[in-house]
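## retry 2 of 3
previous attempt timed out at serialization; input unchanged, resubmitting
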Amino acid sequence: MLSKELLIEEFVASNPLSKAAFERARDVLPGGNTRSVFNSLPFPLVLKSGEGCSVTSLDRRTYTDFISDFTAALYGHSNPVIYDALNEVSTTGFALGGVMEKEAELGEIIRGRIPSMKKIRFCNSGTEANMYALATAIIFTGRKKILAFDRGYHGGTISFPDKGNPLNIPHDFVVGKFDNIEETRPLITNDLAAIIVEPLQCAGGVRPASKVFLEYLRKAADEVNAILIFDECVTSRLHYNGMQGLMDITPDMTVVGKYMGGGFPFGAFGGRDDIMNLYDPYIHGAEKSLFHSGTFNGNVFTLTAAIAASKLVTRDALDRLNALGDRLRISAQDILQASGFTSISFTGHGSEIGVHFHGAEAAIVRECFFYFLLKHGFMIGFRGFICLNLLHDDESVDRILECIRQFVKDYQR
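## retry succeeded, writing output
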């Protein structure tokens, strides 16, 4: 049997510079960073650079990156297409303080992929975009209640883990059971302003919603005149037209973010004309229209990177990537079943894979699995998350599958 203690000792011994950097950071940053998903005991790796589908740590150790910045690094690292486009920024200025043509260009690109986003507003993160989408729905309907779902994650201030989230903004939330029509039905009431849902929950365990469930939410929202919001910050990479396109379900509003910024901070919310026109002073007048501003909304770095990156997101590219992810997930599950190893299971869709740990030793298996893969040059999410990017190939998937096979053998031994 593998020793968790020995694996962690080897990790600590191999990463003295990461340890020192972490201890320095904790003096000024609570927890040593400002993105809690990176937390892992005894300390997280500190990264220095990335290229292709690999990252390199301060200790000059290179890892095949199967986190892909929790879906945001769809293009891999240091992608030359994006890098070359950003050279333009150095000659045109940074913060010009005015409207730029590229805003309309990026809006047209997003609408071409996500047709439900008839009109679009930019902001700087998925969290911010979801906050604005919910606020817009409340104003449009004149109601306050919002239906969300257990283990849903719509940002740091709108999430519903099993333990609850004290940082949630104080909307009148009711929480339904994800992908369960019967337990959701009693919550569909005439005072709902909005229903917000991820077509696949990422932070909630990479759990896909069934088509029948999403179709039910579409019908239910229509019946009570609520706004159906699809949070596709993560799932829009799983099909060229998002999961809504894959399932042929049109929400009233959609939220996107993460990879669509080309590696820079980005979020956007959009939807039906009549909803989004609340922000148009040329229709409603300056006094009656909603005021939405932000210093870095539509900033030149994000616009330039996002437009360049959009050329990499073709139907064929996403189809290849998602087929590769499906192969990894199915093959990994086959390895477990063939060996009778029931302490781990895999879920997901396409390029996003959840790793789940079961039984009395679940916590031990989690740490052993994480540090075993790290020891052999593969980086995954500590919580149990694997994500591919466009620069992964069959060879990189074959290598991590072989490592998973070896882990099972060693653990059983």
